[in-house]
Amino acid sequence: MNKEDIKKVVLAYSGGLDTSIIISWLKENYDCEVIAVVGNVGQEEELEGLEDKAIASGASKIYIEDLIDEFVDDYVFETLKAGAKYEGRYLLGTAFARPVIAKRLVEIAHEENADAIVHGCTGKGNDQVRFELTVKAFDPDMPVIAPWRTWEIKSREDEIEYAKARNIPLPMEKDEFYSEDRNIWHISHEGLDLEYPDTEPNYDKVLKLSVSPEKAPDKPTYVTIRFDKGVPVAVNGEYMKGSDIIRYLNKVGGENGIGIDDIVENRLVGMKVRGVYENAGGRILYTAHEILESLTLDRDTMHYKDKVAVEFASLVYNGLWFSTLREALSAFVNKTQETVTGDVKLKLYKGNVINAGVTSPYTLYDEEYATFGEDGVYDQTDSQGFVNLYALPIKVQAMMKKKVKAKKEQEKKEQGK
Amino acid sequence: MNKEDIKKVVLAYSGGLDTSIIISWLKENYDCEVIAVVGNVGQEEELEGLEDKAIASGASKIYIEDLIDEFVDDYVFETLKAGAKYEGRYLLGTAFARPVIAKRLVEIAHEENADAIVHGCTGKGNDQVRFELTVKAFDPDMPVIAPWRTWEIKSREDEIEYAKARNIPLPMEKDEFYSEDRNIWHISHEGLDLEYPDTEPNYDKVLKLSVSPEKAPDKPTYVTIRFDKGVPVAVNGEYMKGSDIIRYLNKVGGENGIGIDDIVENRLVGMKVRGVYENAGGRILYTAHEILESLTLDRDTMHYKDKVAVEFASLVYNGLWFSTLREALSAFVNKTQETVTGDVKLKLYKGNVINAGVTSPYTLYDEEYATFGEDGVYDQTDSQGFVNLYALPIKVQAMMKKKVKAKKEQEKKEQGK
Amino acid sequence: MNKEDIKKVVLAYSGGLDTSIIISWLKENYDCEVIAVVGNVGQEEELEGLEDKAIASGASKIYIEDLIDEFVDDYVFETLKAGAKYEGRYLLGTAFARPVIAKRLVEIAHEENADAIVHGCTGKGNDQVRFELTVKAFDPDMPVIAPWRTWEIKSREDEIEYAKARNIPLPMEKDEFYSEDRNIWHISHEGLDLEYPDTEPNYDKVLKLSVSPEKAPDKPTYVTIRFDKGVPVAVNGEYMKGSDIIRYLNKVGGENGIGIDDIVENRLVGMKVRGVYENAGGRILYTAHEILESLTLDRDTMHYKDKVAVEFASLVYNGLWFSTLREALSAFVNKTQETVTGDVKLKLYKGNVINAGVTSPYTLYDEEYATFGEDGVYDQTDSQGFVNLYALPIKVQAMMKKKVKAKKEQEKKEQGK
Amino acid sequence: MNKEDIKKVVLAYSGGLDTSIIISWLKENYDCEVIAVVGNVGQEEELEGLEDKAIASGASKIYIEDLIDEFVDDYVFETLKAGAKYEGRYLLGTAFARPVIAKRLVEIAHEENADAIVHGCTGKGNDQVRFELTVKAFDPDMPVIAPWRTWEIKSREDEIEYAKARNIPLPMEKDEFYSEDRNIWHISHEGLDLEYPDTEPNYDKVLKLSVSPEKAPDKPTYVTIRFDKGVPVAVNGEYMKGSDIIRYLNKVGGENGIGIDDIVENRLVGMKVRGVYENAGGRILYTAHEILESLTLDRDTMHYKDKVAVEFASLVYNGLWFSTLREALSAFVNKTQETVTGDVKLKLYKGNVINAGVTSPYTLYDEEYATFGEDGVYDQTDSQGFVNLYALPIKVQAMMKKKVKAKKEQEKKEQGK
């Protein structure tokens, strides 16, 4: 791609200082039209006044796309069904928000006949990868411009200086702030004192959506979540769309100190990073889903699915949402979810999500089989044969060792003569 | 094995009604000498007066074996290092207590020239498998007698009747009781109302070691655990042996409502069962170990080890402790633990185990690499090339799809002519 | 089940001595009507005169079911797509023939209102498991009678004696014969000298379908196989149904000494067994399919699918065809096969199946990317950044080790003062 | 790193045109002393006259290091024990030759106080990664110079022109040649017509070590290989060191057309490449090792090890030899090899490696267990119980489905009223 061929670009725009500066930088460096695109995935407060701001910063046009329900239904719940948690903990909130936005960017770039797509991700994180993999999946020939990897701005201070020199309005901000990413599913916090894993986070300063367990009420809250084929469809008996379920659970979960994770995780780009996540609704939904699966999935399927979940999580984390492997794993997952239907009651109490009872028409648990009395399903005399055959490889190995040992002793004895 | 060849047997004895009756039944049915063996793995209250009781019940001799430290050092911590949790939750307390006892049974049977080993496990559970696999691993030709699978006693009522008819003293018991298994690592509870997974447990009735989060103190407790190569060696700066670490953590953990698990799990013998576990110390140690590994293991090792942990847990759960595969997986695990050394501080608060800071001389996290400023380790311009090559398979697939699509459109056009 | 409730049974009948005797034994022991069912899965010579034979042996009725195409399309090719080979070699010929037959047995049992299903598998093999798991999957309450596990007949000699005493006609047979299982996909051979793994098989005596490589022609034969979404659809440009493709490839493959496997395998029931397999067509199709996938699957998908294949093979081998996990794995596999379309040319020569050229409209190999000249897809300067970030975890670990070493040396020095 | 700080470099030197030019280029561009290092891993013909050539090209010094036995014992056989084959086929010959050489390069660089290490790998292949990962593992701060990724020479033609302009002697070569890599374990061939996977290779032109099966003798050759704990130690009864075993087997294997692989493989750097490999000795050793393991490993260990092998192969292929994960996997593997001791007889015949008998003192196969007669190890009546419990999850699922169906029908009926 030659600089002079870039006449029009589509920019993933947030309204923050970073992307405001990028508009200015693009116009200076490429002399091109800039179309700003905001993908609304539930980041809340940041959407107001964006149009004016974008135009003021030099954009010719702005798209504000409501992607919330697509995000929840096609990405969040697809991952929830898989039970995928990166490194056993992280619910992937930032990871799958990138492909849904990048996919829309490509669509708009095509509609607008744009010559390139621009994002404001730094060169140290995972998001650049997630963005660009999605762009390449939908348009392998679309150029991507990532100013942070190439420009001379290297720090917050450089940014402010750059902005001041060009009269780009600076946001009113506290002296210090965490680097945050928010959407309907989660908020992540990085930076400042969080960069020191030997230090306990000051949760009063960090948390936005939730309170810490200590500040949560002394009385528990109960919620009942209904799943249909692995997908949450109702809360406390009331059917609602997925995004509303998450909103509701974020609220009650946040109030009860649920879903705060303090993690050192391994980035795709090879370094470790420490972050604090708020995942109130997510933690509740994952827990409920796991409880329901413990009742409705048979052992072999559950154990294999646990391994699939690990792979699924890595793919999503690494930006490979739009890959054959992720789609094939989803085909596996969806097959397993056909009977993951039922109600899970949970007690939320000061950071705890406690199983308070689960039912399913497809339950594979039956107290008749599990009780200690007599029954027709399980015949105790079967277990003798089962144990004998199950143990056969162990027995054969032990017999072999005995034979080898006896032979060696025999040889020793004969040599001793 | 012929009945008449059984002159002397070694019995896994607990002092409970089950094994007391078994002594009587063995003498009636085999006319054999019965040697009672109690393996002390920390079941606490049940050891007093056992000798008299066993002799009174008809045993010729009793061994009371202190296996606690062997259990902790060679089984519990070996599994902790692996991070193995069955079905993502269960810390395997009962599962690895069986092999340590069964191994000692075989040793005593050899010392005593016994003709068979007897256990009191039912035919519906996992423990029969765990016992017998271990026996076969150490002596493939040793007969095993499992009265519950063959005798006419089928229920609690049958037992009581049988005991009364023979003047076997009945334990003083409440009308109802949960089926429990206790050792230094955990207590499990099954039966009664727990058989109904739609019902929340009455924790006041169930719990023995811990209080529920609601009853825990309003102030958090902090503990700092030191690990050396994956093994806990000190608490709050004080070095102590493993069993004492567990005892201490069970106490403070139990007081703070930690480690209560309510699980529907898949038994080896094909049915699901619901149990409540108390694992105060175990939960604290697992959490601490995971936090330390997040700092000291590289990504590839950690991700693969997560899969190994799943296999390890299944093997232990299924009684395959003494198997080549378990030993080979331990060899893998031990190699990974060489740098899992350091201190983890935890805040215990009403059921929560919260990371309060971690340090290690072998940390792979370095705030210098992770910060957003400039540094020598990470060069942002590298990421352009990284992303391009990482994305290459996605790009090639997208190019292929584009080409196929273009060809199809071309063919359609030509057909249209 | 009570003996007297068994008025009518459905028997998996082969016409061999075993199942002829079973008819007689069933009538003697259960006084029941016996309906013989032959599932034709391509066992060839054994079908003629079966009706007369069954009636003469005492059956009231016989079903001869042509299951060949169902077998090939729904079982064989489903497994081929998965690339599943048990223990890396065995193409599962016997394993997936059992469920297709057992499924039909249940259907007929339902049509006939039979009270039980009877099979002639011994208690030492895998087939009893495969039969009974399928029966239970389709009718969990249907009793199964397995005479070999319970009757007093324990050997070939017992059988002959039993048959003579009841005038059951004995087959004309050589003094010795291998235990064989044949269907359209394969022939297996076990027993006699094959029981000694230290001995090379006498292939002239063993082989039925194929010649040994030494006896194959000196000129190679070429075949071209077309796949559509992973399924073979044409040979040498001629479209034909799956069973005809296998028949053709068995013929040319067998003539060229292809697909003879001599394996010690691990049975589900815990013992090892040695068998020789003839899989001429199967080996050709698996090889062709693998070659085509090497061109059309991306790396991540291929590598993961290789692991899925291992699990798939174990499930099929262990009789778990009709299980949620097998079906979910097939959902995964089918998603991956969407682009496994193309032509594979193979040279068959004295036991060798040699790649002689492969093409696909969905090829991900492009000589443009792979050549050493310049091109637009791959930019060599990207690799610097790729290597640097890919190596980052290694670098960080090495830096940590250096730091730890330096610190230790420093401490030593200070102690030395 | 600044150019001017580079006073002395260590170069991985082969004597070919590429690395001869690099010496000249280094001196022109860095004005530095160049120390040439040749790691002899069995590349044969290329070693003679190297010293003169290197000095003539401008090197100040040359190291010719005999790494053959280290390569065989610590890399090749370590991988053989793991059974690792990349993508099921490739025996990793080039992949593990890179770390052994790079490790020595770092050692020499330290001895010589060199300022950088230089290699001649292109930016399109795996070898650059393998080299640089090893360098970083042993010295994270050592700069690496990779001229092919940065200089202006982009093709064979450019190279020749560059050499002519500087009087660098050109090798006498046929007009066309394949890109080859040779060591004691294998030869790889890439390029020219091999870049077209639709074309059968002209093996007469390609092969160096082996003949094609068609050209192999009409009489088979037998070899017997003895393994001790997974490592080959003797051939035909004669003990010899590992490298001599490989040399011998390369010879007889090559004569019999063994080990020719034609593969499209997935490179780490994201593209597919087609190569032909000659692996005569390797193929024989892998086959023998697998046969011996089929006798001496229990099922669970074997099946898990098969998965470990896939991971091991990827790590080696991707240059991660010196990584914690590879070392931990080796610890696993070595534990499994303790009983992989015995003799394997093989028939080599026109490309076929045929099992001709295997024995081991640690055999887990015993014809006594496997035969069809009666015996004491296996009791057929056990299988009834085994099948019943093994099938229990299937049965419970089927019962659940039946119940759900019945309930639905009942509801329908009631609605119909």
From TrEMBL, chains A, B, C, D:
It comes from Miniphocaeibacter halophilus. Its EC number is 6.3.4.5. This is Argininosuccinate synthase. The keyword Ligase applies. Keywords: Ligase. The lineage of its organism: Bacteria, Bacillati, Bacillota, Tissierellia, Tissierellales.
